[in-house]
Every structure is written in C-alpha cells, then in structure tokens.
Amino acid sequence: MAKSIEAEVKRLMATGMTEAEAKETALYDLEVEAGEPTEFDLTAEQQKVAKKYTATGTKKKPTEYQFSKRERKPNETKRHIMGDIKVLFQGLELNGICKDVCLSNPERTLDFEWDGKQYTITLTEHRPKK
User: Fold this and answer.
1) I want to staple 9 with a disulfide (CB 3.0 to 4.6 A). Which of 22, 113, 119, 130 is the partner?
2) What is the pTM of this model?
C-alpha cells in the first residue's frame, strides 16, 4: 500500500501539485475507496434534501397507449366516380383492349392490365384552397 501511495503522490505532483497537497489527496482517495467516512460526507438531513432534488419524477406505472385506426366516413362522390371509371374500363375489357379490371379500393384505386403490363389508377380529392 505504501508503494501505491508513493506512486500516486508522484503522479499527482506531475500535474503541478506540491508534495503536501499530493500526499493529502492520495490519502483522501484511499479513504474514499475504502468506504471510510470523510469530512465532506453529507449529513442525514442533507442526504434527504439531495434525494428529494435528484429524484427523476418517473411514474410508477407506464402509460399504456391505445392505438386505433381512425374510421373514415364513406365518400359517396368518390365511390360514384370510381364506379363510372370501372364501367368505362369494363367496356374496354369487352373490346379486348384491357384485362382484369377490378376496384381494389372502391374510393381510391382501380387496377387493370393493358398490353401485358399492370396499371393502377388512383383517384385523389384535393383539399379546398384557403
């Protein structure tokens, strides 16, 4: 132990401390590592105050969120438009121009095949300008 204190004193003196300061610091460090009480320890009253002000304030039980998908009102205008477009493409299907016409989403998308390639038509209703 004496060698480690002497080595610590030399290391601390290299930082610019005097020999007395370095020895005092090394002995204090040794006391702290051993768990002995020091003059800088908090009193019981100070420990209570420190505990109060260092509390994070976390909740006892974490909040459980209920994620649910919002129900949308049916848009009859879009359904009507997509129905008319479907009738138009079914007419093209009867003439042999396109195939596999189907409404994958009755208010939004129409899928079909033309010349061996798959296509989708998407209907978008824009918000009114302010």
Assistant:
1) 22
2) 0.46
